[in-house]
Every structure is written in C-alpha cells, then in structure tokens.
C-alpha cells in the first residue's frame, strides 16, 4: 500500500504501521466514569521505537491494550497495517494478536511445567507450526536472546532475567511486525534490566520490528527511544 505524495517530493510518504484517531476508553466504576484515554491521536512508523511514559493511572497500559487488540475503544479507532481493529470480529482479533503482535509484560507468564524451548514452541503451535520447523524456529529465537544453552531448563531453574528473555523469544518467534512491551524490566535488577533492554532496542535495527514500550523510567525511555510520548490523565502531554 503506498502513501500519499508529500508536496514537492517525488517519493511517496510511507504510511504508518499504527494509526490511532480520537482513541478513547471509558471505564465505569460504580456510578462514576473514568476516562483512561481521552481522544488520543497517534501515528507510529514502521521500525520505530516509541516509549510511553507517565505516572500510574495516566493511560499507558490502556493504550497498549488497545493497540494490541486486548481491549476495544469506547470511541475512536486503531488501524494497524491498514486494518481498523474495531471492524474485526472476535475471531479476527484473536488472529491479529497471534500473527501481528508480540506481547511482553512485567510478569513473565511462562508455563512452569514446560522448558524454555517448550514455552517458545507453544506460541508456534498456536500459529499452526509443528514438528522440526517448530523446534528449529524456537531454538533460533532462544539463541537470539542468548539462551541457546538453557533451552532445556524450566522457568523455576532460570533467573528472572533469563525468564524474561524466554518471554521475549516467545513474543518474537513468529516475527511479528509490532512488539508491545509493558514494563518489561520492572521485575529485574538494574544490570539485568539493562541487558534485556539492549535486546529490545536491537529489534528495529535487526528485524525491522516496531516497538512500543511502556515504562515509568524516563531515563531509560529517553536513552533508547526514537520518540517519547508522555501521557497525563489519558491525554498526550508531550512528545520528543
């Protein structure tokens, strides 16, 4: 799909991977309404690393959930790769989450009874990939995050940093164009957090992955991101 021509230029302007228009999410808490997001307009380019910062309750995680199809907006729209998520059926949204998006959260959400390889292979099973191809791709993803020697270990035998690396490998094994990371280093010590962040930062350059990362650590956000979006009370306060 080609973008519109920029005035005075011959080359087309690439369309953004993600476009949000008037994005609003209202929750009811008893008789009251809480506007978690309030009319957010946002475009994210392909291969961009965007960090979202703000105090607790500013709407950061709500934005991530809407971009990932985990929640639906009260008003406004989210379009990813030319598809408006609000027009998708429940089944289509599930396929969108499996194929287009990779998720990494503060909690690792690994299956305790499965090995590192098994946890990553599980994501491929949901994609309909089986047998030797599944094992090969899982091993490749774990090697990318530096765990080629820990593939047979279960989560309880891995450090926190190693568990988050497994979660990252699982999120990336199907090569999604969009990675959504919600405080992925929040449970890690400073050194381990820096190592995991270095892996995430390398993704746009090495794989072309678009990354949207939520963090409370503004120093980390500004050190690594192409752009920083600050939310306050559900609205963009500043971008850099």
List strands and helices in order, with pairings:
Elements: E1 18-29, E2 32-44, E3 49-53, H1 60-67, E4 75-80, E5 83-84, H2 90-99, E6 101-105, H3 116-126, H4 131-144, H5 160-172, E7 178-182, H6 190-207, E8 210-214, H7 218-224, E9 227-232, E10 235-239
Parallel strand pairs: 3-8, 3-9, 6-7, 7-8
Antiparallel strand pairs: 1-2, 1-4, 4-5, 9-10
Helix pairs in contact: 3-4, 3-5, 4-5, 5-6
| Separation of the first and last Cα atoms | 28 Å
The CATH homologous superfamily of the domain at 18-100 and 176-239 is called P-loop containing nucleotide triphosphate hydrolases
From the 3D structure, determine the CATH topology of the domain at 18-100 and 176-239: Rossmann fold
Helix-strand category: alpha/beta
Strand content: 25-35%
* Radius of gyration, in angstroms, nearest whole number: 18 Å
Instruction: Output the helix-strand order.
Output: EEEHEEHEHHHEHEHEE
> What are the segments in which pLDDT stays under 50 over at least 5 consecutive residues?
1-7
Helix content: 25-40%
Report mean pLDDT, rounded to a whole number: 91
Shape: globular
Largest sheet strand order: 6-7-8-3-9-10
Reported for the largest beta sheet, the result is: 6 strands, mixed
Total E-strand runs:
10
Our count of helices gives: 7
CATH hierarchy class name of the domain at 18-100 and 176-239: Alpha Beta
């Amino acid at each position: 799909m080609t973008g519109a021509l920029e005035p005075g230029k011959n080359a087309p302007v690439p369309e953004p991977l993600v476009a949000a228009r008037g994005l609003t999410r209202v929750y009811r808490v008893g008789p009251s309404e809480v506007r978690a997001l309030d009319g957010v307009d946002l475009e994210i380019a392909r291969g961009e690393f965007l960090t979202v910062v703000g105090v607790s309750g500013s709407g950061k995680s709500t934005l991530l959930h809407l971009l990932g199809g985990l929640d639906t907006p009260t008003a406004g729209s989210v379009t990813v790769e030319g598809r408006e998520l609000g027009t998708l059926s429940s089944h289509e949204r599930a396929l969108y989450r499996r194929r287009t998006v990779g998720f990494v959260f503060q909690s690792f959400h690994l299956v305790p009874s499965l090995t590192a390889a098994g946890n990553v292979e599980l994501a491929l099973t949901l994609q309909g990939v089986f047998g030797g191809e599944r094992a090969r791709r899982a091993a490749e993803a774990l090697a990318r995050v530096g765990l080629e020697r820990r593939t047979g270990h279960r989560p309880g035998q891995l450090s926190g940093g190693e568990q988050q690396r497994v979660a990252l490998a699982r999120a990336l094994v199907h090569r999604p164009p969009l990675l959504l990371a919600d405080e992925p280093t929040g449970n890690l010590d400073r050194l381990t957090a820096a190592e995991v962040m270095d892996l995430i930062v390398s993704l746009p350059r090495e794989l072309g992955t678009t990354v949207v990362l939520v963090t409370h650590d503004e120093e980390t956000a500004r050190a690594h991101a192409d752009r920083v979006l600050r939310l306050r009370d559900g609205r963009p306060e500043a971008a850099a």
